[in-house]
Amino acid sequence: MKESILNNCLRMVNEYNPNMSQKQKDKIKYGLEGLYLTITKLVIITIVAICLGIFKEYIMLILAFNGIRLFSFGVHAKKSSHCLISSLIFFITFPIICKNIVIPTIYKKILFLPLIIIIGIFSPADTQKRPLKRKSRRIIYKILSIIVATLYMSLSIIIKDNTISNCLIFALIIQIIIILPITYKLFGVTYNNYKNYEVKC
Question: Cα–Cα distance between 83 and 75 in angstroms, integer?
């Protein structure tokens, strides 16, 4: 089914741009494949979340997570099946936890600095396919990651809604998991890929 959809999309693109090089076609195919896998993965996880009655918590967590991942990046699994399994664990288990536990304010204050420091140390975590070659970009993304993490932890203490507060904290916890070097090692992918390039500015 996947190949059929991708081939039909590529055929349509080729009709509008018949002079495309093979390299351009490969790039488009790669992008379409990533989009297809993302959509199908989201559909599966969303259906599971609805069936378990945690749709609201799932949406809040995934929005918060994408807010920090936008700047902090993180590991991408080699196989789509690994990605789906890990996503199910994160975005089904954690919303259930967010819905059912209460984290006392004192513990949130204790977590405040450690979570931000870990985000600051390991962000941004690039990938082999998208290495962050320029040092200036890495610095900007690191600063933005720290700002977002600080905002999340501050809001988690201020906001009275327990579920929203929990989702902000667990979004950071998920992000920390996917930027740690040990996670890259577990997924069998390379870490700090920018070091393979000479661009430093």
Answer: 10
Residue 192 is classified by DSSP as: -
For tokens 């009709």, name the residue: 15
- Which three-class secondary structure string do you get for 22-72? HHHHHHHHHHHHHHHHHHHHHHHHHHHHHHCCCHHHHHHHHHHHHHHHHHH
pTM, two decimals, is: 0.84
Structure-derived torsion over alpha carbons of residues 48, 3, 185, 68, reported in degrees to the nearest 10: -60
pLDDT digits (tens, 9 = 90+) for 14-41: 777 777 677 776 667 666 666 777 888 8
Alpha helices (runs of H) in 80-180, residue ranges in sequence order: 80-88, 94-100, 105-122, 135-158, 162-179
Spatial separation of the C-alpha atoms in residues 184 and 77, rounded to whole Å = 9
Average pLDDT, the chain: 88
Name, in order, each residue with C-beta under 8 angstroms of 186's C-beta and a sequence gap of 6 or more.
none
Q: Which residues contact 155 (CB under 8 A, 6 or more apart)?
A: 165, 168
- For residue 21, what is the enclosing H or E element? none
Three-state SS for 103? coil
Give the span between the Cα atoms of 16 and 197, in whole angstroms: 36
Residues 46 and 54: beta-carbon distance below 8 Å: no
pLDDT in tens, 87-118: 999 999 999 999 999 999 999 999 999 999 99
**Residue 155 structure tokens:** 């809001």
Give the chain's radius of gyration (CA, Å).
19
